[in-house]
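I hope you will forgive my troubling you with a question about protein structure. The record follows directly beneath this note:
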Amino acid sequence: MYEFLHLPEDEKTAKEIQKYVRTLKYKNIIMIGIGGSILGGKMLIESLKNEKTPRVIALDNIDPDFFTEIISKTNLKESIFVIASKSGDTIETIANFMALKNVLEKQKISWQKNTIIITENNDNFLNKIAKKEKIKCFYISKDVCGRFSVLGPMGLVPAALAKIDINKILKGAISAKNIFEKTPNTHPASILAEMQFKAYTKQKKPITVIFPYSKKLSSLADWYIQLLSESIGKNEKIGPTPLKAIGVTDQHSQLQLFMDGPNNKFIIFIEIENFENKVKISDTSLKNSTLSYLQNIEMGQLLNAEKRAIEEAFNKKGRPNITLKLNKLNEENIGSLIYIFELQVALLGEIFNVNAFDQPGVELGKKLTKKHLNAKN
């Protein structure tokens, strides 16, 4: 189940993805999936999108109003459709796909040539559709758990479609892998796993707050929440509960609780030292006001000053926290960060002595859903 650690070295699949994407023409990307099958792709696109990135739509819920609103306002003839499900039988993904297929056929759009399927290469529903309709399919190994699959086709196909350099993402992940192999005990993944374990067991901190100081890392926080939740929460005694906060937005919503409420949280900050864009705060009205200290500083400086102030305040209050710093937000650093988090959660599973790669609680819900649907029929 540790095959995910070797995904960054799969140059053959990366080249195949890039070669195929270059043959396509589209203005919109419609992603259909749920959980680990779509969160990684969303995270890469939100973190790394650029001026060449087309419009991206994620259908990651079976909400009929959202589906109708999005589909009715999108030129489907100019869209590419990515259908992702590791099992190939995920009911929510299949439901959205079939609903979209009906719309496309009513509009007489040849959907097959504009569709990419990502799944396992076995006798599942999506793979049968792909073979029957001659749809391009990228396969994910049965030994790679969905939430650990972002550095394979699940994440790389949407990223490549979004005009993101996937080679650089993989380069960053390989860099993190090489460092771990040379110095495993001092690797960020090892340190983070040990600190989180001690916070949970020794300091009684059952809640982990993932707190990036960047709006573009909002989906990365969502991805990490799933990674931690489904991997470690396996019995009534073990399972850090993750929360998401975005700096500085949530300083004005959740911070009061974090600072003066129950001291039961372990904080993981993510700080970007150098932002791509420089936005200067400058106006004559600031000069003689109580806000004169804002004059002629950059917005990124203010953002990081507030982050460091909150970090210092947490330290003074005895609220445990750790900061992961990126010198800039780019493909290589995101690749490294993904590898660090995946490795950290896998190590955490080893320390807690739980299977980080199954999800029995989710499977029970799937079985009961079928029961309720059969009862209505």
